[in-house]
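Standup notes, protein team

Yesterday: finished cleaning the Setaria viridis set.
Today: Tubulin/FtsZ GTPase domain-containing protein structure.
Blockers: none.

Input for Tubulin/FtsZ GTPase domain-containing protein:
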Amino acid sequence: MAAQLVFSNVSSCQCPLGISPKNVGNTLLGESARNFQRKKWFSGGFYRSSRLECSANSRRAGPRRTKDTLYDLHPEISLLYGEDNGAASVSSKEQGIDAAAERLVDAPASYRYNEPRIKVIGVGGGGSNAVNRMIESSMKGVEFWIVNTDFQAMRMSPIDPENRLQIGQELTRGLGAGGNPEIGMNAAKESQELVEQAVAGADMVFVTAGMGGGTGTGGAPIIAGIAKSMGILTVGIVTTPFSFEGRRRALQAQEGIASLRSNVDTLIVIPNDKLLTAVSPNTPVTEAFNLADDILRQGVRGISDIITVPGLVNVDFADVRSVMSDAGSSLMGIGTATGKTRARDAALNAIQSPLLDIGIERATGIVWNITGGNDLTLTEVNAAAEVIYDLVDPGANLIFGSVIDPSYTGQVSITLIATGFKRQEESENRSSQAGGDSNRGHSGWFSPTSQEEGPALQIPEFLQRKGRSGFPRV
């Protein structure tokens, strides 16, 4: 449904874009006007735009006239229906709009829109495998890199050779870190200049790795720290080892996560053991590892799609930065559903995800994305929003994105990132003068004592009923 944009007294406006009364009318936005969005001058075309409004003698659009019944929607979802107070309506003949679009493209650089540049860096064997899966899934809008000390493993990746970064060539001679995080750390330090060149120009960097080994555990914190020191929004998404991988890898993973936490804006830790609650007991080992890689892929895609893929609601990169910058430890939930109540069920599945060990009502920020096919309706989006918004704190900062993907016809998928747990608990600790463990800031499913020593958690009833992993905790 077209948003509306009204121009009045255009002839008196000193508009740098050269729009005149001859090519700007006062009717609804037509088909050719959507060429504006295709030319990507700025995100969302005219939607919620203030760049094209004339400040002199301008007036807002009158009440929206439609035969449709006005839904009682959440404020963010109502934007889908064109109910933006600052919105207005542009229209004219096809050639007039096309001509205006050409002038937008040729506008001075100060008026052009620069798309956020997102890079995904897989560190070590686990991180590289996750990136390989992202490439195989035809994930768009991001630039992929793999970083490793093992030259032979890098050669097997489908990624472009120029985006393969071998670190620690003098230290390891391309033979890997041998499961030693210290070697991985020193290898990353040795190749610091190459890492800086790899992340240069990015607005957002995802650092993904499988913790517990050598290169990923030791190298990921160094690489993330370099990106963050360059002013780049840095998000870490890592996995912890399965219990059957041994105690040594579990301890190394703990140390690596502690180091990584201080070098990223947002850290999402995915315990591999919890993934086993979603699969059959007869699941092969190879499939279990593939599932871990796929969860990393879904986490990265759930966030990046909000920024890079044009959707029903266009989200500014600045909005995402406001929620994820210096957010500390975060949690991720993923839900998929089909059927008549698929959107609501997908939202419930995301909230009840085994990856969420505590309730999202404690989060100070929520980033959530709903993906569906061409059959996704506004009512379904609103149903999913009601489930999430009714549970979170009213004061939480929520960022919502919606993406249409034809391959999702018949189903709905929701990815939810809950942030700000660390900041909230630190505030509670200061106010109560209770002191406490310095590690209490991260989420409960990482620290084995956080649920015993930390403040009481208000866990929803359906989360209390959710079964937990039968495997021993790290």
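Follow-up from PR in the comments: Strands lie at 118-123, 143-148, 164-166, 204-210, 233-240, 266-271, 328-338, 365-372, 397-404, 411-419.
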